[in-house]
Q: What sequence folds into this?
């Protein structure tokens, strides 16, 4: 089974996941499915496996992604405020 919460609400069969991941662009490949246990944290394009037995790297990556998400939210809010001020100031 494949767990991909960005695409599905629950586990899906590998063939179903692969069918949604197929790149329609000419010259681009299809995804490779590799059965593993839970130990790989990341498998690079050459097949080298990084493990994260104590989940420290996983935690660091999640913290980084949360910061990026929060920064994007703050930027969007700031941009909305600037647009509102510009409309009120310069378009009236």
A:
């Amino acid at each position: 089974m494949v767990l991909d919460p960005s695409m599905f609400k629950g586990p899906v069969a590998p063939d179903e996941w692969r069918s949604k991941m197929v790149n329609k662009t000419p010259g681009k490949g299809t995804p490779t499915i590799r059965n593993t246990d839970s130990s790989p944290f990341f498998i690079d394009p050459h097949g080298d496996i990084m493990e994260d037995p104590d989940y420290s790297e996983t935690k660091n990556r999640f913290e980084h992604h949360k910061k990026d998400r929060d920064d994007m939210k703050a930027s969007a809010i700031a941009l909305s405020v600037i647009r509102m001020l510009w409309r009120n100031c310069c378009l009236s």
